[in-house]
Design brief:
The protein is α/β, with parallel strands linked by helices. The protein has two domains: 121 residues, Rossmann fold; 78 residues, no CATH class. 44% of the residues lie in helices and 12% in strands. It contains eight helices and four strands, in the order βαβαβαβααααα. A four-stranded parallel β-sheet has the order 2-1-3-4, with helices on both faces. α1 packs parallel to α7 and α5 packs across α7. It is globular, with a radius of gyration of 17 Å. The N and C termini lie close together (12 Å).
Length: 206
């Protein structure tokens, strides 16, 4: 199975890293590649052409993933985003493709990373400073999950990177580390609706 994931962000960014990591944990035998398109307006504009190109070049299923927040000055929320994505996909002739899946993450990617306290505890802890972070139930309803994680990093003064900034959450450096420490069966993350849709998109017959 060859999976293309169209998402926000840039090559090597946190979205691409985390989606590829989780996809390969769910479907270890798959070939998975992310195709970041920049910000959400850019993603919506390009989604149809990119999806059509992926199907035409041998990808067997395509996932389009985005954060509901921020809105980038756009009205409403997930429904509006999905409607605009379907218009882009329709223009490229792939809107009805049975192996095309749209997955909105409520609030933002950090909702997935915030859910399981054991993963955050592992990343925030040092031998001299063990940390215990509780699970966050319904993390996808937290108003600003990225800020919540930033506050945790600041509170525990965690360094990241070759020239670390003490107490800073740097998504490109830290997001994958958190994802890698999510328990085998995904723990609290596995209860989040958008993550369940992600798993279904990778495993459903289409």
């Amino acid at each position: 199975m060859k999976v293309g994931i169209i998402c926000e962000g840039r090559l090597g960014g946190e979205d691409a890293q985390v989606f590829e990591h989780f996809a390969l944990r769910i479907e270890p035998g798959a070939v998975v590649k992310t195709f970041p398109q920049g910000n959400k307006p850019e993603l919506i504009e390009k989604a149809g052409d990119v999806a059509a190109s992926l199907f035409a070049t041998g990808y067997t299923r395509v996932l389009i993933m985005w954060d509901v927040m921020p809105r980038w000055g756009r009205p409403d929320g997930e429904q509006q985003d999905a409607q605009d994505l379907r218009a882009s996909l329709g223009g490229a002739g792939v809107a009805a493709h049975p192996c095309l899946f749209l997955i909105a993450i409520q609030k933002e990617l950090e909702a997935w990373l915030l859910a399981d306290g054991s993963a955050l505890s592992a990343v925030l802890s040092t031998p001299a400073h063990p940390v215990s972070v509780p699970n966050t139930k319904n993390a996808d309803t937290v108003g600003n999950p990225k800020k919540r994680i930033e506050n945790l990093f600041a509170r525990h003064n965690v360094p990241f990177g070759p020239q670390p900034v003490q107490g800073s959450y740097v998504p490109k450096l830290a997001a994958l580390r958190i994802a890698e420490n999510i328990p085998t069966h995904f723990g609290q993350l596995g209860k989040i609706a958008s993550f369940k849709r992600f798993g279904h998109a990778l495993t459903a017959t289409c």
